[in-house]
Amino acid sequence: MANFTTEKKIYLKPISPTKLVDGKGNEFKCPKDNVSKERVSRAFKEGDRAVKIMDKDGTLTMGTVDIKYFETGPNVYKLNDWDGLNSLKVQVNKNVEVPAEQLELMQFIATSNDLKPKELFLSETKWKFLVRSAMRGKNIMMTGPAGCGKTMAAKTLTNSLNRPHYYFNLGATQDPRATLIGNTHFSKADGTFFSEALFVKAIQTENAVILLDELSRAHPEAHNILMTVLDEGQRYLRLDEADGAPTIKVADGVTFVATANIGNEYTATRVMDRALLDRFIIVEMDVLKHDEEVDLLKMLFPLVEVNEIENIASIVSATRKELNSEMPRISTHISTRSSVEMASLIYDGFTLSEASEVCIYPLYDNQGGIDSERTFIKQIVQKYCPQGELDDDLFNADGADDSDNEYSQVS
Q1: Cβ 123 vs Cβ 129: under 8 Å
Q2: What is the pLDDT of residues 132-174, one digit of tens each?
Q3: From CA 168, how far away is CA 336, in angstroms rounded?
Q4: Is there a common fold for 9-86 and 114-284?
């Protein structure tokens, strides 16, 4: 057994997911390896753990221990030079202290993953970025394919932060000025008067989170109205274009969260001006992997047989794989929203082929006979349906024989 030199040892207290301090407040950064990063982050998150750093024959090692080891000793290294520890020491201006509010924000962000519901499949890094951006009052745009959970993620954020929140579906708005500013009305009793839109109240509510759903489908006039509202250097809403018209200032801490579908397949969307896009930070939603799709459906429908859920996920994954191929034979993939609906139908007694007929087939063009997108999709579905469930045997037609070899049939 090797004899380790253990005289070089110190206990440090984490003050952030990446920083530690000794007994005199000297700051040390976390080593760059992933194991050390995970341990320091976990110790900070738990709040009752210290980090033990040792030198074992010239190699810096670290682990987590009870915080009492830090609190019961001086924990200032005074022995021989320790290059490994010195390399981690942060040279700071002693006259500058991290404000308490900043430390509180950092701790909230570090522990924010606890606020994310299990059914929201978003990476921890993206969720932390989303939370941090909202806490800093940034404008956030959620992008990704249709049905991937953009609106769900935005609504989850508003609920997690426990802030006042307002929802506006801009894609369904035919009169942007009435929705975002208000209308002029006339009555015999009051004469002509102006009625402010709910949006005016929303932007005057401190720390509000305002969800602008389907921004990419909004009328161009809505984009023009929002330009000054979203601009960090302006942040106001003009109620009228006339000279001297009153303006409404956006209150402190207001965060705008928009959702958008960006891409050629979304024909009803509008190309958003680059100046509008530059007013947002972008959070891209991930498309679920096969195992994640299975986990989500099992979570939402625990009474549906596992083999049925596996079959749905395999069909969905096959379409996503095909769409990402060099020469895709389909124009779109099956969304998570559609897979959830399929599982819901099976829970209500539908067969997989029946659920596919109403949820999947309408998404694909039937023009072209055996070469059509719909025939190709039917070939994929047939692989996962029990014998006799489908009327037509489509495997005599060329097409999907090897489109999804990595997905085995579950029967």
Answers
A1: no
A2: 999 898 999 988 877 788 888 888 888 888 889 999 998 888 8
A3: 23
A4: no
Q: Which residues of 210-234 are buried (b: 16+ CB within 10 A; e: fewer)?
A: bbbbbbbbbbeebbebbebbbbeee
From the candidate CATH numbers 1.10.10, 2.40.50, 3.30.1360, 3.40.1800, the one assigned to the domain spanning 9-86: 2.40.50
Q: Which residue has the tokens 């009803």?
A: 268
Tell me the whole-structure pTM to 2 decimals. 0.66
Integer angstrom CA distances of residue 54 from 9, 51, 257, 297: 4, 10, 46, 46
